[in-house]
Amino acid sequence: MDAYKHVVQYYETDKMGVTHHSNYIRWMEEARIDFLSRIGWDYARLERDGIIPPVTEVTCRYRKSTTFADEIFITVSVKEYRGLRLVLAYEMKNAEGNTVATAESEHCFVDTNGKPIRLSKKFPEFSKVLEELADANGAAAE
Amino acid sequence: MDAYKHVVQYYETDKMGVTHHSNYIRWMEEARIDFLSRIGWDYARLERDGIIPPVTEVTCRYRKSTTFADEIFITVSVKEYRGLRLVLAYEMKNAEGNTVATAESEHCFVDTNGKPIRLSKKFPEFSKVLEELADANGAAAE
Amino acid sequence: MDAYKHVVQYYETDKMGVTHHSNYIRWMEEARIDFLSRIGWDYARLERDGIIPPVTEVTCRYRKSTTFADEIFITVSVKEYRGLRLVLAYEMKNAEGNTVATAESEHCFVDTNGKPIRLSKKFPEFSKVLEELADANGAAAE
Amino acid sequence: MDAYKHVVQYYETDKMGVTHHSNYIRWMEEARIDFLSRIGWDYARLERDGIIPPVTEVTCRYRKSTTFADEIFITVSVKEYRGLRLVLAYEMKNAEGNTVATAESEHCFVDTNGKPIRLSKKFPEFSKVLEELADANGAAAE
User: Do C11 and D22 touch (CB under 8 A)?
Assistant: First the structure.
């Protein structure tokens, strides 16, 4: 799957002259929404259907600084999924192909009242896609 | 009335080494919510009551740069109000008392369906306070 | 000239369910940098050459709300330029072609010490391009 | 030590009606700078002295959502420090005393050229304070 591209904006830099670290967390969201849309989960539509995947944890490891006008290529993969909890992994590379950051986000699924949803029951088809991606990813890692 | 104080955060600076100009627009919101609360309009409560004052226009004139750890003191006043449209004026000073920015925001009032509200009808008491502040401000300007 | 495209991010929305108004000021910067680059002023390069165009004033008039996943098309034009002060105008449209916001930004030019530069002396070629664009724009407006 | 207080701003919420998760990463920075200043490390001064503590990793676990106008109380402690790498831990509570998030940030120390610094050599006094706080924290954890 193609990487998601984010171009670093001037307003994303800080007085150290580099991208402020908090922005990578926002790029994860951009790449995640793009990824979910590509595997059949149109974020806006499912939100209208009343399913929301709040972030329960994020981790980001910064390996190389980036700055204004840099192109960042972000690849998302399903690290873990067994029906309830989803863990996504992110690899961010610059135009030279160097990894600038690696990250993970963990999600649960809730309805509009904030009640946890078992995705495999409510959205079996989408759930199956996530399972297959998690399995493929696990196999690749072995 | 006391000025609202905002301390410039590191993440609000940019690679020029100064506060990114977009943040002043956010500080206007901080100061506005504080101001409205002081004159009897608790923002959170009125939002629950279904009245929302969207921003219809902002202008900010940058006079002196600011940077990380600077204390900014923001004074808000009612520039214009006649029941429908509210114009607020902002003066931002640094700790030395120098004006760093002057700004204005224009607002209308809508209900939760986005329909315009005549504030003087729906919230006559709050509307009267705004009128008096606008009059006092106009008199002071003459 | 083609419009600059910004897709509204989830993190740019607020609890009213729409794009927070401060983000339009950031989109103006995105579109401005793109515009300047297209007319021969590569922002990153000129910044390295020690010329910086700080924002001295912004105005944004919000006409129609936007929200997550909306595509915004931003056209930039030179409203005023006579060697010292540059005024750019922005028109932001949604995918349906409706204007969602109009805006202006004013800039001066300074060197890395913050001293004002007369652009027409330091960068005569780029200055001439701006003049021609301002003239063409003025003629079109008549 | 007193907790650092952050009041959630309107512009920090998203269309889910709660604080966008990326802002917690920024609050960590606010609390960290406040904490370092209280234990004798004035951030602005040391930055002038040419020592910078870039973030090499962040983790944030979201436990309870927060929203506009909530008061967040953030306690920072030194989790690990042995001269090179600093790990800080954060606990964020709401006004009711419930933990809304727990987090960690990892830092190294570099000079203005980006070269790693051994803090214990360059800033022995400050380094000693960090060591003592790490030891006290470790003892408390046992």
Answer: yes
Which residues in chain D have their CB less than 8 angstroms from residue C11's CB? 14, 20, 22
Q: A4 — alpha (psi -120 to 50), left (phi > 0) or beta?
A: beta
| Nearest of A3, A18, A13 to residue A77 by alpha carbon | A3
Note down pLDDT in tens along chain A; length 142 residues. Answer: 689 999 999 999 999 999 999 999 999 999 999 999 998 888 877 777 788 889 999 999 999 999 999 999 999 999 999 888 999 999 999 999 999 999 999 999 998 888 888 888 888 888 999 999 999 987 766 5
Annotated active-site residue B34? The verdict is: no
Which segments within D1-142 are labelled E, that is strand? 4-7, 55-62, 71-81, 86-93, 99-107
Residues B40, A56: Cα–Cα separation, whole Å: 37
The number of distinct structural domains making up chain D is 1
- Across the interface, whether the CB atoms of A56 and D65 are under 8 A apart is answered no
- pLDDT category at C15 given cuts 50, 70, 90 is very high
**Measured CA distances, D67 to A34, B127, C15, D10 (Å):** 26, 27, 9, 8
Position C20 scores a pLDDT of 98
What is the token pair recorded at B62? 């940058």
Residues B127, D40: Cα–Cα separation, whole Å? 49
Place B82 in a pLDDT band, splitting at 50, 70 and 90: confident
Chain A residues within an 8 Å CB radius of C43? 10, 69
Domain of residue A79, CATH code: 3.10.129.10
Question: Model pTM?
Answer: 0.95
Residue span of the structural domain in which C57 resides: 4-141
Scanning the structure block, which residue is given the tokens 């998690």? Answer: A134
Of D29, D57, D114, the CB nearest to A60: D57
**Hey, which chains touch B, using 3+ CB pairs under 8 Å?**
A, C, D
**Does the ipTM exceed 0.85?**
yes
Residue C74 in contact with residue C3, Cβ under 8 Å? yes
**Among partner residues A10, A26, A29, which is closest to C29 by beta-carbon distance?**
A10
Q: Given the DSSP bridges, would you call strands C86-93 and C71-81 parallel, antiparallel or unpaired?
A: antiparallel
Query: Which of C21, C52, C59 is nearest residue B59 as measured by Cβ atoms?
Result: C59
Strand A4-7 and strand A71-81: the pairing is antiparallel
- As to burial, measured by CB atoms within 10 angstroms (0-12 exposed, 13-18 middle, 19+ buried), residue A67 is middle
Does the distance separating the beta carbons of A33 and C26 come in below 8 Å? no
Instruction: Give D133's contacts (C-beta < 8 A, 6+ positions apart).
Output: D39, D77, D78, D81
CA dist C108 and C118 (Å) reads 9
Cα-Cα-Cα-Cα dihedral sign, residues C26, C32, C38, C41: negative
